[in-house]
Specification:
By secondary structure, this protein is α+β, with helices and mostly antiparallel strands. The chain contains 9 helices and 11 strands.
Length: about 240
């Protein structure tokens, strides 16, 4: 039984015979009051309405068209598709989010108005799957810029606690100090690029919280640099297509 037939028979059995949606039928037959999720009959096709969008069109020859109108990543829209055996999921490739749809055991990158034949094969052109790839050149430059900072970081870290206490007193509280350190973290890439030595102590103090080790209750230079490097280089990457099998 293809999706058209399934929708057709459910429509016949549960059609609304009165009210604003006379002629349509509940997509979930157990919840007839859920009128924003309906089955409709249109010009020789069967469709599924979710809110104001016809997310599925099923044809008598077995073809199926999907169209979430950009809402494919919301939980409720995904649940509506899944109700009819069309799961939409997220696939992360090195941090890049690909939205995938599964039809008859095959997985495809989702896009609006994609069409499948009666066997579940994609009839419209396939969309590319992507992944993030580190920009090694940019990250190497960042490391080079940070060398003077790394040379003095262990000493600055060892003397960080009294400086933080002094900053809290100077700025009249921890909230204002946190705002200051947040501003420093946002400028870290620029500060290291300029090798602004007068700001190095502030950089160390600002990044301590990101590297805090609850077990050891202290921060090592290695931990601080790891936290700083990871955060500062997270956008030093490119989007590349995944090679098709």
């Amino acid at each position: 039984m293809n999706l058209y037939t399934k929708l057709f028979f459910q429509h016949e059995r549960h059609v609304y015979k009165r009210g604003a949606y006379t002629g349509d039928a509940p997509a979930d037959s157990r919840r007839r009051a859920k009128t924003h999720f309906r089955i409709v009959k249109r010009d020789g096709s069967m469709g599924v309405i979710f809110h104001s969008t016809q997310i599925i069109i099923a044809y008598a020859d077995g073809r199926v068209m999907l169209n979430a109108r950009g809402w494919q990543n919301t939980q409720t829209t995904r649940a509506a598709f899944c109700h009819f055996g069309i799961p939409i999921t997220s696939k992360w490739n090195n941090g890049y989010k690909n939205t995938m749809v599964q039809i008859n055991g095959q997985s495809y990158v989702y896009y609006d108005n994609m069409m499948f034949d009666s066997s579940g094969a994609l009839m419209t052109p396939p969309a590319l799957e992507y992944r993030y790839e580190a920009d090694k050149e940019a990250r190497a430059v960042f490391k080079e810029d940070a060398k003077p900072f790394l040379d003095v970081m262990p000493v600055l870290l060892a003397t960080s606690k009294p400086r933080i206490e002094a900053t809290v007193n100077k700025r009249n509280g921890w909230y204002a100090t946190q705002r200051h350190y947040e501003f420093v973290r946002e400028r870290t890439v620029s500060l290291l690029e300029r090798q602004a030595e007068e700001e190095y102590s502030d950089i160390v103090d600002a990044w301590q919280g990101y590297a805090y080790d609850e077990v050891e209750e202290r921060v090592t230079p290695k931990q601080l640099w790891s936290a700083l490097y990871r955060k500062c280089t997270q956008d030093m990457r490119s989007v590349v297509a995944v090679a098709q099998a």
